[in-house]
Predict the structure.
Amino acid sequence: MDVRVVVLGAGSWGTTVAHLAAHNTPTTLWARRPDVAEEINAHHTNRRYLPDFTLHEALEATADLPTAVRRADVLVMGVPSSGFRETLEEVNDHLRPWVPVVSLAKGLEQGTKLRMTEVINEMIPGHPYGVLTGPNLAKEILAGHAAAAVIAMSDVTVAVRLQDLFATDLFRVYTNEDVVGSELGGALKNVIALASGMADGLGAGDNTRAAVITRGLAELTRLGVAMGGQPETFSGLAGMGDLLATCISTQSRNRHVGEQLGRGKTIEQVIEEMDQVAEGVKSAKVVLELAEEYGVDMPITAEVAGVCAGSAGAESAYRGLLKRTVASERG
């Protein structure tokens, strides 16, 4: 029997995951805007988010959320963290029991500080839940470059069954039993990517960027482990892999925001110029709150949060880091 994958959210990554799944199984992509759904069905393109790329011809799209959700055997949440709970509220009345729910979002909920799988479990309890995450830049995958990801689910058997739904010859999917660590790796790395972008915007060299990435990995690992993640996860695809791609790629939204901040723009100016969400901007404050709650020292995150809040500039943030007392690298 065919398993129907339904992806909610026709941004760049949601569309790409739907495109991958369409290689293997019937797949429906829900777009909030009817014109986007019509374009995907008629032309197999999503020019707003993925210009110059052709999507799998078997991929279907719709703007009818209830009908799409009722057909789902696997539900993939490709909406940003800011709209995650609201979308689940719409989903709740239409989703059949026991349908696995997979999050693509790499952020934390404002106010509650919850991970997206925690929001899933709170809003629609009883469903297997998890994340698909890793160093995955949408345009590179659509261009045919090899990539890898991990799928971490609350039920390991379900994770194994889902592997083949998303994998292709050039997109390899590994399983990981650590849902907490896999999810946190994706959320926390965005804050470090902002710092890496700031370094580029300020004209710092590769030595500086390497130091930011390495010390940033130490920060997110400390917090991730304190919150229940496994240390090994943060040295894998969901941790170091995703961090590297997000910190160095010109396609990275979070790195782009950081770079523009480093060049002197305000956070309001940068966000106004973008048509997609950079999760790290809103996550920075939440991550800092979690660091304080768990007693974890995160100096890079603290400086980034200050810049995102408008209380400091990128240059002063880097000066602040340099003034810190030198300690053991493992401290």
Q: What stands out?
A: The radius of gyration is 19 Å. DSSP finds 15 helices and eight strands in the chain.
